[in-house]
Structure formats: structure tokens, C-alpha cells
Amino acid sequence: MLVAPEAPPRRVHITEVGLRDGLQNEPVVLATEQKLALARALIAAGVREFEVTSFVSPRAVPALSDAAELVAALRDTPGLHLSALVPNLRGAERALEAGVDSVVLFVSASESHNAKNVNRSVEASLAGFEQVARRLEGSGVALRGAIATAFGCPFEGNVPVQAVEDIARRFAGLGATHLSLGDTTGMATPPLVTERVRHLHQAAPELALTLHFHNTRGIGLANVMQGLALGVDRYESSIGGLGGCPFAPGASGNIASEDLAYLLGEMGIDTGLELERLIDASRLASELMGRSLPAQVSRAGPRLALSDGDSVPTAEGRGT
Amino acid sequence: MLVAPEAPPRRVHITEVGLRDGLQNEPVVLATEQKLALARALIAAGVREFEVTSFVSPRAVPALSDAAELVAALRDTPGLHLSALVPNLRGAERALEAGVDSVVLFVSASESHNAKNVNRSVEASLAGFEQVARRLEGSGVALRGAIATAFGCPFEGNVPVQAVEDIARRFAGLGATHLSLGDTTGMATPPLVTERVRHLHQAAPELALTLHFHNTRGIGLANVMQGLALGVDRYESSIGGLGGCPFAPGASGNIASEDLAYLLGEMGIDTGLELERLIDASRLASELMGRSLPAQVSRAGPRLALSDGDSVPTAEGRGT
User: Where in this chain does the entry annotate a coiled-coil region (chains A, B) (predicted)?
Assistant: First the structure.
């Protein structure tokens, strides 16, 4: 599965997770109409794959309590793939009723994070997934898996690759088509990316592997570079870098969709996304949230957005 | 010169440019004692190579008008390599008198940036460097070259690799030992890094190549990953990501030293730097500047700084 860095994938699929992972950690709760305005701006930029919400308890995550309405409203737009996270059978029933294209079952690779997140053991989560898999049979809705804390846990520290591999095999056994490795609190590093991707290519080659990095420690796109060198062609990101890290106030959350699209575009990799329109969507997200977002390319503009020279401060002898 | 990404350099030299490139674009001007406090914090973190100031016109860059005092004060600390930018013979005389270890001559690869920066043509800059090179002969002070806008120009757009190569040959002819490629306004991309590094390895193999990236568009460390894959073992960064981009208000400047050191450390590459102490230095820099700085790892803490769980918001069902 390895490719030389000279030959990265020609086409990369980016799933926009801003409406889900981005919004769930923000103090501001958007109205459904505002989320739809943001979704429409993203669609105008070429986004076709959305992880659009979670069908979790509205009490636990009030920001996503409009999950069904949001999916229903976006169903009018043709050509989209809408996925949603579900923790259990009840969530899956709601997701099916709302009309998602795929259901994402999630579990943490570390016990303490899974306990904090869904209040049960990893094994209890996995056992519950079997009901969901059976329910999806013949429904035409695909099953995807997501593993949180796949590169490290904020409570336990390092997470053995074996824990990730074991869960991946279980997802494969349930008939999942895709597997996302979640870098929940930004603990992924290039060597961990290499180790985990290789193990999963061996252990569960039937799963389309997606890397979901956070930029909590500034190296999210360095990890993407490593993923590309390993041939991985699916990534998840959020517009503007929306979101944050509940364990580190002020720290960044997901890698920013426009920074990722900029990097890939400059590498000659097709993403189907239009950078200028993504920047428009990012500015809308920033307006809606009432704060500046961590994405960089939206502040500086595209690479060849030339300065007219008039806006340049006296810069004699500033050097490099 | 190419190495596989599995075999990056084992040791990387990081030159701290925060006191020079970092401070020259900040609205706050630090007193010499404050700069020394920051330098001491960086030395405690293991920093030994500083691009410490520029011997340019104090009228043009008031923030660096204490160049001579700063170098003199740091000369008391053994084991440091202190370099300083100089635009011409007059600057070189001042640098020699102050006691630098190496003098960095700088010129832009694009005419319009060189005109804005030092008010002369590229050829006029290069011609002037010959005097400096002669003056340095036998002085024991090394000559280094730096090329601004080496990956693109905010006024002209793309910069031909030939322009960079031509200047590199001139620096080699002047007896320079090192060459830094400056990504002045954050226009470097992985393919441009590959192209430029390969050309320079061919055209001027005697020059130790240094990559000086800005994170203006969020891909600074992705460019470092590409540099590592090409075997480049010298990088320049600024603590906290101090500095900015004079052409894009709000945009980031240099890549942050602690984010770079974190990435390299996690890749098993020796930098001689201690991350926790770098974070201390970054916090001091933030205090001195009176603002939060763009570096990420200083906000989130090192990778294995575990959460005690008590500071965690209710997070049921947040997923990945």
C-alpha cells in the first residue's frame, strides 16, 4: 500500500465535519437555518461529503439537537453523501428515519475515554453495534466505523495499536465499508500514522481508511503529509478549523478544510473543492460563530493573491 | 540527496530567528533587557544557534536598533552561534565590531520585493556583497547567504527557480558556507520545496541548505515534512511563531519553534531542544508581547500532558 512521496494519490476525498465535530465543541449554538446557510456555502465550494450531525442525546450535545431537521433539509440537494454519527440502535433508528446515506458507529480505543464519552466499556459499545449492523441490513444505508482516541488518549496517554486493530476487525466483521481513525485530542504524530495505517492495511484491507486529524499541537497537516506518503486518500476536516479541544482551552480542533484543500491543490491533487469559495464559507462560519477561526489561508488569501504594494508598510531592510 | 521518508535526518539544526524575524514585524518594541530575558529562556531550552538581529538602518527597523548591544550582551554566554543579517558593507562593519559569528547577506529573488526591501536591484545587491565578502576574508567570521521570496513574491507571484539558482551560485562564489531559502510571505508548497532543494543540491552542493518557512497559509510544517524527505537538516523558526506577515494583517509569520521541535522530537529526530523549556520561553514571549502567539503546542501542552478528567466538560456522545 505504500507509495513514494513523489507519487501521492491523484484524488483525495475530503469529508466536511464542521457541522458535526466543529459545532459540538463551540459555545455558540447555531440555529438550523444558520447551519443550512453554511452547508450551502460549502456545497457551492464543491463539498459533497458531509458528516453532518450526530444522533446522540440532545441533552448531552444540545448543539446537535436538530439532527433530523438538518438531514431532512439537506436531502433536497442531489449528489450529496450525508453521514451521521450514532452511538447505538436508538440513534441509528433516528438516523435512518431522517434519511442519511451512511451511519457512523463510534467507539474509543481507550477505556477511559469511552467511559467519559458514552458511559460504557469498549466491549459494551462493540456488542451494541451488532444490533445496529443487523438493523442496517437491506436498508441501503451504509455502515461506517470511527475510532476515537486512535492515536492517544488524554486520560491514558499512549494507546496500543493492537487496541485500534482489534476494533477495526470488529467493524470489518460487522460489514462496515469505511473506517475513520480519530485523532480526538491532537496526539497523532507521523510515526504513529505510519504504524497505524500499516497495521490497518494488513488487518482490515477491506475498510476504506480515513484519517481525521486535529491540529491541537500544530502538526495536523504534517500528519496529512505522512498519510499521503502512505497512500491514504481520505481525510476529514472542518471549515475554518471550527471546533476546539474540550481538554485544552484555546487549542485548535479539527484541521481546517481550506488549509487542507490549499495544501492538496498545490500538490496537484484533485479534491473537487474550489479554494476561493471555501474561503467564503469560512468567513461565513466565522461570522456565525462571532469569532475568528484558526484556519490560516482564509486570513492570508490564496497563494497568488498579490499585494498591490500600497498596503505594504515601510519595509526597508527587513530581510527574509 | 534524496532519502526515503522512512529515513529522515537523525539530527536537525534549528536556528532561532524570533529575536530577528519575529520581532521586526511586531508593533511592540522590546527593550534590550527583555530580549535578553527571552534569549536566556531559549538558551535554557537548548537553543544554541540564533539569528539574533539585523544590522540595518535603525530608522527602517526601530525594533532592531539595539543590534550591537544585544550581540555584545550575548557574547558572554559560551557555546552560542550568533548570526546577524546585514544588507551591505556598513552593516557588516557594525556586525563585525559587535562580535557576531557569522554575517548573513540577504537579497530577494524577485526584483520588486528587493526594491521594496532594500531599494535597489537584485544585481546591485549582489554587486555590493563582493565588498562584504572581501572584508570578511581572514576575519574568522563566516559568510552566509539568505534569499528572500525564494518560493514566491507577494508582488510578482511565482518566482522562477532559475532566479534562486543564479543567486545561490553567486553566494557560493563569494565563499558563503550556508544558504537560507526564505519563504517570506508563506508561498512555499511541497512541490516548490522539492524543485528548489533539488536544483540547489545540484547547482551549489557546497552550501549547507537551510529552509526558512512561514506559516502564513497554514502549511509551514507540511513543507518541513517535504524538506525532511529530501534530506534537508537545517530549519529556521521563531519561538511562539512570533512575527507576522506585513502583507496580510492577522496572518501568521514564521513557523513556531516549539511546534517544529515537537514534530521533530516525535519523529525521533534530535534537535538538542527541550520542549517543556521551549514552552516556558514561548509563554515569556507571549507575556512580553502582550498577546497570545500562534504556536499550538504551547496552548495544548506536550502530547502526554494528561488530563485529570475533572476539567473535562460533560462530553457524552461527542464521538471522535
Answer: none
Note the pLDDT tens digit of each residue in B241-262. Answer: 998 777 677 778 999 999 999 9
> Which range marks the domain in which residue A96 is found?
13-300
pLDDT, tens digit (0-9, with 9 covering 90-100), for A124-157: 999 999 999 999 999 999 999 999 999 999 999 9
- Dig out the grid coordinates for B243 from the structure: 512575527
> What are the phi and psi torsion angles at B116 (to 5°)?
-65, -35
C-beta of residue A141 within 8 angstroms of C-beta of residue A201:
no
- Chain segment B139-157, per-residue pLDDT in tens: 999 999 999 999 999 999 9
DSSP B19-85: IIIIHHT-SSPPPHHHHHHHHHHHHHTT--EEEEEE-S-TTT-GGGTTHHHHHHHHTTSTT-EEEEE
Q: How many domains does chain B have?
A: 1
Between CA B280 and CA B276 the distance in angstroms is: 6
Instruction: Using the predicted structure, report yes or no on whether residue B2 has a pLDDT greater than 60.
Output: no
CATH number at residue B147: 3.20.20.70
| Contact call for B21 and A182, based on CB within 8 A | no
Whole-number Å distance between alpha carbons of A293 and B218: 12
- CA-to-CA distance for A220 and B219, rounded, in angstroms? 9
Q: Which of residues 215-274 of B touch A (CB under 8 A)?
A: 215-219, 221-222, 224-226, 229, 245-248, 250-252, 256, 259, 262-263, 266-268
Of A245, A278, A279, A284, the catalytic one is: A245
CA distance B77 to chain A (A): 26
* Least trusted range by pLDDT, from B19-23, B120-124, B172-176, B314-318: B314-318
Determine the Cα–Cα distance for residues A66 and A173; give it in Å rounded to an integer: 32
